[in-house]
Design goal:
single chain; mainly alpha; Serine Threonine Protein Phosphatase 5, Tetratricopeptide repeat; about 65% helix; PPR_rpt; TPR-like_helical_dom_sf
Length: about 120
């Protein structure tokens, strides 16, 4: 649903899963985060990610990379650096897409930051 731009339907389905005795696992949360970021809802994605960290399920490497890219694409460099530090603590790596965004940002903006 997220990929077909039916975010409202995806949110309703996501919210209804517990009432149907279905578990919202890491993959489901990650898909929802990706959908939120795709349509530019950074704050909503940050809130959902914080909920994952607080109440579970535990984010995986894919989840972290999706959030990292979303933060970078929205020029939230300080938050991206904090998230990258958390990834290092969890022994997670940046994927090729995340590294590509870092390179693109350095090339276009010339930011004075180091990830």
């Amino acid at each position: 649903m997220c990929k077909s731009n039916n975010l409202d339907g995806a949110k309703k389905l996501f919210d209804s899963l517990p009432s149907k005795n279905l578990k919202r696992d890491t993959m489901i949360f990650t898909i929802m985060l990706s959908g939120l970021l795709t349509v530019g809802l950074l704050q909503e994605s940050e809130d959902l990610f914080a909920r994952m960290l607080d109440k579970g399920p535990t984010p995986n490497e894919i989840t972290y990379n999706i959030m990292f890219r979303g933060l970078l694409q929205n020029k939230k460099i300080d938050k991206a650096v904090q998230l990258r530090n958390e990834m290092v603590k969890r022994d997670f790596s940046l994927d090729a897409n995340s590294i590509s965004i870092i390179v693109d940002l350095h090339a276009s903006d010339g930011p004075d930051w180091n990830i």
